[in-house]
Amino acid sequence: MLELGPQGWGAILALLWTLFAIRNWRRYRTSSSRLPPYIPEKILPHEPQWIVYARWSRTLGALITIPHMRRPVIVINTREAADDLLTRNKSFACRPYFPMAELLGRQHNVGFTYYGERLKKMRAVLHFSLSKRHISTVWGDLLDSQSLCLCHDLFRLQQGFYDTVESNVQTFIVRLAYGRTPDTKYLKDAQEIMHHTGQALQPGRWAVDNYPLLWWVPSWVPGAGFQRWASDGKELFLSLTRGAFHHVKEEMAQGSGQNSFVRHCLLHFSTNPGFGPEMEDIVMYVAGSLFSAGTETVSGSILTFILLMARHEQIQERAFQEIATVVGLDRLPGPQDADSLPFINALVQEVHRFNPSIPLATHSNYQDEEYRGQRIPRKTWILVNIWAMLHDETVYENPADFIPDRFMQRNPPPDPRDLLYGFGRRRCPGAYIANAFIFHVVARTLSTFKITPDGAPPPLDFACGFVPSPKPFQCHFVPRSHASPLLGL
Ligand code: HEM
Question: PANTHER family, per this entry (predicted)?
């Protein structure tokens, strides 16, 4: 057999890559229309990209192309363009291809699944279990007990509230998925899996993203350490996902265990005539997607709320007064109060508008498209700039300021939650449960604590990653005088 050294492999890969690049180049050249205008600036790593894109879109238009990328990456910056393209055209329901994420097995995860029959089934399962009608009937006890648990933990706070919030939300999502409180080993593994995913998505980090043929290089080839890393990461992801799912099935067989997404879906769908191994597999992987989809997004929103309360004492006091007047001080607010607390509702909307948990959603298109004379080639990476839409000064006056009152006007601007959760056939299926949990946490913490800064107000300093949570900051949760009987302590 012909033996190839590293140089031989390199030459073959370079040749194949050149042919691939020529083919793409010819395809882009032959089209008559142009790509949207390029941003004439290289994005610096420390600057939040969504802010740079929003700035350029004011002069260049709704769609802009990011320079210095191997393939076209187009950013959609206005709601109108997002509605036209993402809501009305199913071609844009696709996700980009991330070779490294796929080597890690993440194509099983809902968020990475390409548009097609399997995705539709995954989303049907999610829409069934996390639908609006099931929020209070199926998930009411979980929402009540987990938000109460957060208030208890904040009351007894031994160490930083930041970790307390994050671990409460993680417990919430694991209880939602599997009906059990996770142990430290489970949480450690689940966080490691998310960390791997984050590493896999880092632009420019992996040669396999630019040279897809490296996908096929076996792990024993010198320099193919990424294959071994990915295979270990995939093993961890699969074993955690399968283990947690089968644990619920065993509990169900024994007639024990708590309500959960897995149990709810299995009980419901197993009575369908078409239910078989494929549907069981789908429920398993959908449940395995919830941790990465639901933890950072929800805790990022709650931490942003806390940061803004520590900075805006008067707004916080007004929110407390509303609860004291409408609900009283002898019980905790609950879902039945949501419609009677307009200022709390406005406050939550403004928290989301101010710092959306996912400022840039990622889509792709499975066929060539054109938008107002601009070309969007097939398989373009589409970044949807949710942040830009929520900071559009023609819609939200003084967008850099935190003003819940903007939603109390007679003709308020659109509810940010219409945009916050994404678009069309990829819109977040966890929106109802996320809204419900965030309402419980906001209303209950405001009713029992005064959130005060530790000296000077904490800075508005957010991480630059996929989910820009506030960077760790100091503040105090001072229990209000009626808090301890209210919390049963
Ligand atoms: C404040 C909290 C949350 C925010 C802001 C948020 C936002 C989003 C956004 C922007 C997307 C992408 C939409 C698009 O591509 O157009 C998404 C996808 C998704 N979210 Fe959420 N989310 C939150 C909480 C949750 C929760 C609690 C769950 C589940 C328990 C969840 C499950 C999912 C799933 C499974 C997807 C992937 C959907 C798909 O690819 O088809 N999310 N979310």
Answer: P450, PUTATIVE (EUROFUNG)-RELATED, P450, PUTATIVE (EUROFUNG)-RELATED-RELATED
